[in-house]
Design a protein that fits this description.
InterPro entries: BC10-like, Glyco_trans_14
Strand order of the largest sheet: 2-1-3-5
Main location: membrane
Shape: globular
GO molecular function: glycosyltransferase activity
Subcellular location: Membrane
Helix content: 25-40%
Radius of gyration: 27 Å
Number of helices: 9
Number of strands: 8
Structural class: alpha/beta
Order of helices and strands: HEHEHEHEEHHHHEHEE
Membrane topology: Single-pass type II membrane protein
CATH class: Alpha Beta
Distance between the termini: 105 Å
Length: 336
């Protein structure tokens, strides 16, 4: 009877051995996956650190980043602007409609030939695709270590100073020019953004920014704030008479207008507001209608209201702002 028990013990030992081997295989696999994931995260973050450590001694460039719907209708003016500049002092990047190519058939200025991004996306106003396009422009421009200043422009922007003046002005300042403030009457903040984006860090400002290289890197390398904007900022739905009073609620939800908040909020979250000139270098005149319609938009200048005298008046505008912390909010006071 005692001799017959041996095979049973052997089976138990064999079963336990296989169970132990399986356990260690799973454990080693999980460790290997974790190490690979960790290595990927470290290498990804190292891209930013390596890019920041690059010491560039050559001529510094201004990267002009055009956010266009399709073509650049004022390309001939920009052509004159770049014509008198040293090509070593600037670079051009254009985010246009996917597949649109700038060549002799689509632009009147040779400076824009082939300057479109190859990975452009379809952009919708009021949605996160707008800031995604801005990030693509900055990412492309950061590939060249000579680019030290980054100017975001629309397809309706025009220069009112010559290149030499603009270059000296931007290079003389170690700060980014970002209009950024906390609007006490602001209602665009989505509570669902908390706790990743606390309401106290929510900022508002002009979309048209000028960045130093380090701040451009912060925007491109962001993997925390942008996903929250992408998730929580949706374009408000159109009015639907069938929904009655529900329309009022629907018109308020997710109306964050990310292009007026993302960069400002990200830099505030990154504790970089002390490195900003909190103003934009792009002059905009808003249509402050008194008809009760609060859907304000910037005015489009025409030949009739953009003559030498009007441009001279714009140049002498003294736009200064100061900020006061009041009741836990940051108030902006500006004098024109």
């Amino acid at each position: 009877m005692t001799k017959k028990a041996a095979p049973k013990v052997g089976r138990h030992v064999l079963w336990f051995s296989w169970k132990l081997v399986t356990f260690f295989c799973i454990a080693f696999s999980l460790v290997a996956l974790f190490r690979l994931h960790l290595r990927y995260d470290i290498s990804s973050s190292a891209v930013s650190r390596t890019r920041s450590r690059i010491h560039y001694d050559g001529p510094a460039k201004i990267a002009f980043l055009f956010l266009a719907r399709r073509e650049l209708p004022l390309d001939f003016l920009w052509g004159s602007f770049f014509e008198i500049a040293d090509v070593e002092n600037f670079s051009i990047f254009i985010h246009s409609a996917p597949g649109f190519v700038f060549d002799e058939l689509t632009t009147r200025s040779k400076f824009f030939y082939g300057r479109q991004l190859s990975n452009s996306i379809q952009v919708a106003w009021g949605e996160s695709s707008m800031i995604a396009a801005e990030r693509l422009l900055l990412e492309a421009a950061l590939e060249d270590p000579a680019n030290q200043r980054f100017v975001l422009l629309s397809d309706s922007c025009v220069p009112i100073y010559n290149f030499s003046y603009v270059y000296k002005y931007l290079m003389a300042s170690p700060r980014s020019f970002v209009d950024s403030f906390l609007d006490r009457k602001e209602s665009r903040y989505n509570p669902k953004m908390s706790p990743t984006i606390p309401k106290g860090k929510w900022r508002k400002g002009s979309q048209w920014i000028t960045l130093i290289r380090r701040h451009a890197e912060v925007i491109v390398d962001d993997e925390i704030i942008f996903p929250v904007f992408k998730k929580c900022c949706k374009r408000r739905p159109p009015l639907d008479a069938r929904k009655g009073k529900m329309n009022m609620k629907l018109q308020k939800q997710h109306n964050c207008i990310p292009d007026e908040h993302y960069v400002q909020t990200l830099l505030a979250m990154s504790e970089l507001e002390g490195e900003l000139e909190r103003r934009t270098l792009t002059y905009t005149q808003w249509n402050l209608s008194t008809t009760g319609n609060q859907n304000w938009h910037p005015l489009t200048f025409s030949y009739a209201n953009a003559g030498p005298q009007q441009i001279k008046e714009i140049k002498v505008v003294d736009f200064s702002c100061f900020y006061i912390v009041k009741d836990g909010y940051l108030d902006e006071y500006c004098d024109l």
